Amino acid sequence: MRNALVDFARVAAPLQARLQTALEGTKRTKHVAARVAIDFTADERNSFGQVKQILAKSATLVTPDDSDELILMTDASDAGWSIIVTAVEDWDPATSITEQQHQLVHCVSGTFKGAAQHWSVSKKEAFPIIKAATDLDYLLIRSKGFRLYSDHRNLIFIFAPGDEIKKHVRGKLQRWSLKLNELRYTIEHISGEENVWADMASRWACIELPRETTTVKRW
Protein backbone atom coordinates (compact mmCIF):
# COMPACT_ATOMS: atom_id res chain seq x y z
CA MET A 1 0.00 0.00 0.00
CA ARG A 2 2.81 2.43 0.82
CA ASN A 3 3.85 2.48 -2.86
CA ALA A 4 0.64 4.42 -3.54
CA LEU A 5 1.22 6.88 -0.69
CA VAL A 6 3.35 9.85 -1.68
CA ASP A 7 5.73 10.95 1.11
CA PHE A 8 4.77 8.07 3.43
CA ALA A 9 8.29 7.62 4.87
CA ARG A 10 8.65 11.25 5.95
CA VAL A 11 5.12 11.57 7.29
CA ALA A 12 5.20 8.32 9.26
CA ALA A 13 8.78 8.70 10.58
CA PRO A 14 7.76 9.88 14.11
CA LEU A 15 5.34 6.95 14.44
CA GLN A 16 7.88 4.43 13.15
CA ALA A 17 10.49 5.71 15.61
CA ARG A 18 8.03 5.52 18.51
CA LEU A 19 6.98 1.98 17.59
CA GLN A 20 10.61 0.85 17.37
CA THR A 21 11.25 2.26 20.85
CA ALA A 22 8.10 0.70 22.30
CA LEU A 23 8.96 -2.74 20.92
CA GLU A 24 12.57 -2.82 22.11
CA GLY A 25 13.22 -6.02 24.01
CA THR A 26 10.01 -7.70 22.82
CA LYS A 27 9.04 -10.05 20.03
CA ARG A 28 8.30 -7.76 17.10
CA THR A 29 4.99 -9.25 16.02
CA LYS A 30 1.66 -7.62 15.21
CA HIS A 31 0.10 -9.38 18.23
CA VAL A 32 2.66 -7.89 20.62
CA ALA A 33 2.49 -4.46 18.97
CA ALA A 34 -1.29 -4.36 19.36
CA ARG A 35 -0.96 -4.68 23.15
CA VAL A 36 1.66 -1.95 23.60
CA ALA A 37 0.18 1.11 25.30
CA ILE A 38 1.39 4.29 23.63
CA ASP A 39 0.60 7.84 24.71
CA PHE A 40 1.25 9.95 21.62
CA THR A 41 3.11 13.24 21.83
CA ALA A 42 1.80 16.25 19.92
CA ASP A 43 4.22 15.56 17.04
CA GLU A 44 3.14 11.91 16.89
CA ARG A 45 -0.55 12.82 16.90
CA ASN A 46 0.15 15.24 14.07
CA SER A 47 2.00 12.49 12.18
CA PHE A 48 -0.93 10.10 12.67
CA GLY A 49 -3.31 12.72 11.31
CA GLN A 50 -1.13 13.27 8.24
CA VAL A 51 -0.93 9.52 7.59
CA LYS A 52 -4.74 9.36 7.60
CA GLN A 53 -4.84 12.28 5.17
CA ILE A 54 -2.48 10.68 2.65
CA LEU A 55 -4.39 7.40 2.99
CA ALA A 56 -7.54 9.26 2.00
CA LYS A 57 -5.70 10.69 -1.01
CA SER A 58 -3.92 7.48 -2.02
CA ALA A 59 -3.62 7.02 -5.75
CA THR A 60 -4.63 4.07 -7.90
CA LEU A 61 -1.55 2.48 -9.44
CA VAL A 62 -1.50 1.43 -13.10
CA THR A 63 0.58 -1.08 -15.03
CA PRO A 64 2.25 0.75 -17.92
CA ASP A 65 1.74 -0.45 -21.47
CA ASP A 66 4.78 -1.00 -23.68
CA SER A 67 3.65 1.89 -25.86
CA ASP A 68 3.36 4.36 -22.95
CA GLU A 69 5.97 6.97 -22.19
CA LEU A 70 7.46 6.01 -18.82
CA ILE A 71 8.48 8.94 -16.63
CA LEU A 72 10.92 8.76 -13.71
CA MET A 73 11.01 11.82 -11.45
CA THR A 74 13.34 11.97 -8.45
CA ASP A 75 14.29 14.52 -5.84
CA ALA A 76 16.22 14.83 -2.60
CA SER A 77 16.33 17.23 0.30
CA ASP A 78 18.91 17.37 3.05
CA ALA A 79 16.99 14.74 5.04
CA GLY A 80 15.10 12.63 2.52
CA TRP A 81 14.63 11.38 -1.04
CA SER A 82 11.77 10.39 -3.31
CA ILE A 83 11.05 8.40 -6.48
CA ILE A 84 7.92 8.75 -8.58
CA VAL A 85 7.21 6.77 -11.75
CA THR A 86 4.32 7.68 -14.01
CA ALA A 87 3.00 6.54 -17.39
CA VAL A 88 1.69 8.82 -20.12
CA GLU A 89 -0.49 7.06 -22.68
CA ASP A 90 -0.80 9.87 -25.22
CA TRP A 91 2.49 11.74 -25.09
CA ASP A 92 2.45 15.15 -26.75
CA PRO A 93 5.97 16.43 -27.57
CA ALA A 94 4.62 19.98 -27.75
CA THR A 95 3.26 19.82 -24.19
CA SER A 96 5.35 20.41 -21.07
CA ILE A 97 5.96 17.57 -18.65
CA THR A 98 3.66 19.17 -16.08
CA GLU A 99 0.76 19.28 -18.54
CA GLN A 100 0.99 15.66 -19.70
CA GLN A 101 -1.71 13.23 -18.52
CA HIS A 102 0.18 11.23 -15.89
CA GLN A 103 -0.95 7.96 -14.34
CA LEU A 104 0.87 6.86 -11.20
CA VAL A 105 2.87 3.63 -11.55
CA HIS A 106 5.03 3.66 -8.42
CA CYS A 107 6.10 6.04 -5.67
CA VAL A 108 8.43 5.62 -2.73
CA SER A 109 10.30 7.94 -0.40
CA GLY A 110 12.78 7.56 2.42
CA THR A 111 15.20 9.34 4.72
CA PHE A 112 18.99 9.46 4.69
CA LYS A 113 20.57 7.56 7.57
CA GLY A 114 24.06 6.99 8.92
CA ALA A 115 26.92 8.11 6.66
CA ALA A 116 24.43 9.06 3.93
CA GLN A 117 23.32 12.01 6.06
CA HIS A 118 26.71 13.61 5.37
CA TRP A 119 26.78 13.06 1.60
CA SER A 120 27.22 15.99 -0.75
CA VAL A 121 24.18 17.48 -2.44
CA SER A 122 25.09 15.76 -5.72
CA LYS A 123 25.27 12.34 -4.09
CA LYS A 124 21.97 12.85 -2.27
CA GLU A 125 20.28 13.94 -5.49
CA ALA A 126 21.82 11.01 -7.38
CA PHE A 127 20.85 8.37 -4.83
CA PRO A 128 17.12 8.04 -5.70
CA ILE A 129 18.00 7.78 -9.40
CA ILE A 130 20.30 4.82 -8.78
CA LYS A 131 17.91 3.27 -6.28
CA ALA A 132 15.22 3.37 -8.97
CA ALA A 133 17.62 1.88 -11.53
CA THR A 134 18.36 -0.96 -9.11
CA ASP A 135 15.01 -1.62 -7.43
CA LEU A 136 12.70 -0.79 -10.33
CA ASP A 137 14.63 -2.41 -13.17
CA TYR A 138 11.56 -4.57 -13.86
CA LEU A 139 9.80 -1.34 -14.88
CA LEU A 140 12.68 0.59 -16.43
CA ILE A 141 14.25 -2.10 -18.62
CA ARG A 142 12.11 -1.76 -21.74
CA SER A 143 12.71 -1.39 -25.46
CA LYS A 144 11.24 2.11 -25.50
CA GLY A 145 13.31 3.26 -22.55
CA PHE A 146 12.14 5.94 -20.15
CA ARG A 147 12.37 9.67 -19.52
CA LEU A 148 14.31 10.75 -16.42
CA TYR A 149 13.74 14.18 -14.88
CA SER A 150 15.94 15.80 -12.22
CA ASP A 151 16.08 19.33 -10.86
CA HIS A 152 19.81 19.02 -10.09
CA ARG A 153 21.54 20.38 -13.19
CA ASN A 154 24.96 18.77 -12.55
CA LEU A 155 23.42 15.31 -12.74
CA ILE A 156 22.31 15.98 -16.32
CA PHE A 157 25.97 15.87 -17.37
CA ILE A 158 27.13 13.23 -14.88
CA PHE A 159 24.36 10.84 -15.95
CA ALA A 160 24.22 11.83 -19.63
CA PRO A 161 23.66 8.55 -21.55
CA GLY A 162 26.73 7.14 -23.23
CA ASP A 163 29.43 4.52 -22.84
CA GLU A 164 32.28 6.91 -22.14
CA ILE A 165 33.45 7.45 -18.57
CA LYS A 166 33.30 11.11 -17.53
CA LYS A 167 36.85 12.02 -16.51
CA HIS A 168 35.71 14.60 -13.97
CA VAL A 169 33.45 12.10 -12.17
CA ARG A 170 35.07 10.01 -9.46
CA GLY A 171 34.21 7.50 -6.75
CA LYS A 172 30.61 6.73 -5.91
CA LEU A 173 29.14 8.99 -8.60
CA GLN A 174 31.26 7.29 -11.26
CA ARG A 175 30.09 3.84 -10.17
CA TRP A 176 26.50 5.03 -10.13
CA SER A 177 26.91 6.54 -13.60
CA LEU A 178 28.10 3.20 -14.97
CA LYS A 179 25.13 1.45 -13.34
CA LEU A 180 22.66 3.84 -14.94
CA ASN A 181 24.27 3.39 -18.36
CA GLU A 182 22.97 -0.18 -18.38
CA LEU A 183 19.53 1.31 -19.08
CA ARG A 184 17.98 3.04 -22.10
CA TYR A 185 16.80 6.54 -21.21
CA THR A 186 16.81 10.25 -21.88
CA ILE A 187 17.58 12.66 -19.06
CA GLU A 188 16.16 16.16 -18.77
CA HIS A 189 16.57 19.03 -16.36
CA ILE A 190 13.34 20.15 -14.76
CA SER A 191 13.07 23.19 -12.52
CA GLY A 192 12.35 22.52 -8.86
CA GLU A 193 9.15 24.48 -9.33
CA GLU A 194 7.98 21.99 -11.97
CA ASN A 195 9.28 18.91 -10.14
CA VAL A 196 6.41 19.34 -7.73
CA TRP A 197 5.45 15.70 -7.04
CA ALA A 198 8.93 14.44 -6.25
CA ASP A 199 9.87 17.64 -4.46
CA MET A 200 6.85 17.48 -2.15
CA ALA A 201 7.68 13.91 -1.28
CA SER A 202 11.27 14.68 -0.25
CA ARG A 203 10.94 18.19 1.17
CA TRP A 204 7.26 19.20 1.18
CA ALA A 205 8.12 22.52 -0.45
CA CYS A 206 8.90 23.74 -3.97
CA ILE A 207 12.24 25.16 -5.09
CA GLU A 208 11.85 28.19 -7.29
CA LEU A 209 14.30 27.82 -10.17
CA PRO A 210 14.22 29.09 -13.77
CA ARG A 211 11.96 27.06 -16.06
CA GLU A 212 14.65 25.64 -18.34
CA THR A 213 14.99 22.18 -19.83
CA THR A 214 18.11 20.49 -21.17
CA THR A 215 17.72 17.19 -23.02
CA VAL A 216 20.34 14.52 -23.71
CA LYS A 217 19.15 11.53 -25.75
CA ARG A 218 20.48 7.99 -25.85
CA TRP A 219 20.16 6.18 -29.15
Give structural notes.
The chain has 219 residues and is of the alpha/beta class. The protein has two domains: 2-56, no CATH class; 69-216, 2-Layer Sandwich (Nucleotidyltransferase, domain 5), CATH 3.30.420. It is 35% helix and 18% strand. It contains eight helices and six strands, in the order αααβββααβααβαβ. It has a six-stranded mixed beta sheet with strand order 3-2-1-4-5-6, with helices on both faces. Helix 1 (8-22) packs across helix 3 (42-56) and helix 4 (121-135) packs parallel to helix 7 (171-180). The relative contact order is 0.16. The model is unreliable at 203-219 (pLDDT under 50).
List the helices and strands and how they pair.
Blueprint (H helix, E strand, L loop, with lengths): L7 H15 L7 H5 L7 H15 L12 E8 L3 E9 L13 E10 L9 H15 L1 H4 L5 E5 L2 H6 L12 H10 L4 E5 L6 H7 L12 E2 L3
| Biggest pleated sheet | 6 strands, mixed
Radius of gyration, CA atoms, in whole angstroms: 19 Å
Which architecture of the largest domain does the CATH hierarchy give at level 2? 2-Layer Sandwich
Strand content: 15-25%
CATH class of the largest domain: Alpha Beta
Structural class: alpha/beta
From the 3D structure, determine the CATH topology of the largest domain. Answer: Nucleotidyltransferase, domain 5
Low-confidence runs: 203-219
* Largest sheet, spatial ordering of strands: 3-2-1-4-5-6
The CATH homology group name of the largest domain: Ribonuclease H-like superfamily/Ribonuclease H
Task: Give the SSE order as H and E letters.
Answer: HHHEEEHHEHHEHE
What number is the mean pLDDT?
78
Tell me the overall shape.
globular
Q: What portion of residues is helical?
A: 25-40%
Distance between the termini: 36 Å
| Assembly status | single chain
Total beta-strand segments: 6
Total domain count: 2
Number of helices: 8
